[in-house]
Design goal:
This protein is mostly helical. It contains 3 helices and no strands. It has a domain of 29 residues.
Length: 49
């Protein structure tokens, strides 16, 4: 590998910073909850039968 070449992970981190990506786990969870519906609990599924 040449001295000026960066490992893939470093390229990824640099690109994420350029796009102002948020590294906060709490923010990730908030965004994920907007996209993914939670699984119904076992009790809720049994109550429907």
């Amino acid at each position: 590998m040449k001295a000026e070449e960066k490992p893939q992970i470093d390229k990824f981190k640099e690109a994420a910073r350029e796009h102002e990506a948020d590294e906060s786990a709490e923010h990730w969870d908030e965004q994920l909850k907007r996209v993914v519906k939670p699984k119904p609990s076992d009790q809720a599924a049994k109550g429907r039968s």
